[in-house]
Design the sequence.
């Protein structure tokens, strides 16, 4: 059976992300400097720039964000007193701060919680108990993102560099996967008679929802 091109690209992206995290952990553990560290620092920004160029609606806003991030990386590289570990912690912290804001802003009064919006795109009308549940899941994700930031800060301050790097690089994806799987198992157990979307389906809805939001902003 022929492997769909879309899934092949997704698999390659996942492998690339995992490989990057392993290389980052190696660089932190060995306090690697030179071209190897430079390439690892700039690679995520180049990927983000490519995504913004191809898919983002507000390209000017993304250009300013990327230029600011590039300036930050350049300044960090010139600070010899900063360890390699601190420099690699910036992308991790920035990513989870963004996700915390992205989910948390939808919990304000008058806004529809993000997971509720995703569920509505899949199922249409939601019963009141599912609206309450999906709001709770949105809050749970915010707690998860906040816990990631707090744990990273505490490990960086009080644990060894290797332990901190293990958490932000090696355990990053497994913890995300565990959060997805735990929520899904709880949902299908708690609401057995309700039709449930798979994790893959929800990820597709997330990507489509982001594309629609970007398109709307571009108009």
Sequence:
């Amino acid at each position: 059976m022929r492997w769909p091109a879309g899934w092949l690209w997704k698999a390659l992206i996942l492998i690339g992300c995992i490989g990057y995290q392993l290389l980052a952990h190696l660089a932190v553990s060995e306090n690697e400097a030179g071209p190897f560290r430079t390439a690892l620092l700039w690679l995520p920004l180049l990927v983000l720039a490519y995504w913004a160029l191809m898919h983002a609606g507000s390209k000017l806003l993304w250009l300013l964000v990327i230029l600011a991030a590039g300036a930050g990386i350049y300044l960090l590289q010139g600070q010899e007193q900063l360890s390699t570990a601190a420099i690699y912690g910036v992308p991790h912290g920035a990513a989870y701060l963004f996700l915390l804001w992205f989910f948390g802003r939808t919990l304000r009064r008058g806004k529809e919680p993000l997971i509720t919006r995703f569920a509505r795109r899949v199922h249409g009308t939601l019963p009141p108990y599912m609206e309450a549940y999906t709001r709770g899941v949105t809050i749970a994700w915010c707690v998860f993102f906040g816990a990631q930031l707090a744990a990273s800060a505490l490990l960086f301050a009080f644990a060894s560099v290797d332990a901190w790097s293990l958490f932000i690089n090696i355990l990053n994806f497994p913890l995300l996967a565990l959060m997805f799987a735990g929520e899904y198992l709880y949902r299908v157990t708690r609401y057995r008679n309700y039709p449930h979307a798979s994790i893959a389906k929800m990820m597709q809805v997330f990507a489509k929802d982001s594309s629609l939001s970007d398109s709307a902003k571009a108009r």
Q: What stands out?
A: The CA atoms of residues 90 and 123 lie 38 Å apart. The chain is about 80% helix and 0% strand. The chain has one domain: 5-218.
